[in-house]
User: Fold this.
Amino acid sequence: MKGVTWTPGLSVLQVRESVGGPTPYAKGKNAVLVRKATGERIPVDVDALWSGRDAAKDLPLEPG
Assistant:
């Protein structure tokens, strides 16, 4: 899998686009974004985000 380097403003959708989208084995409805600094777990339906490309539902990423 191609790696992605974090840069300010990077989002979940941008990462998916840069790696070419989901694999056939991906379970995007079960995805969770974990904030390293706080341990917060945020459920993300990345399948819906990928298919709709709705920037309003996109989440910014943080380093780490």
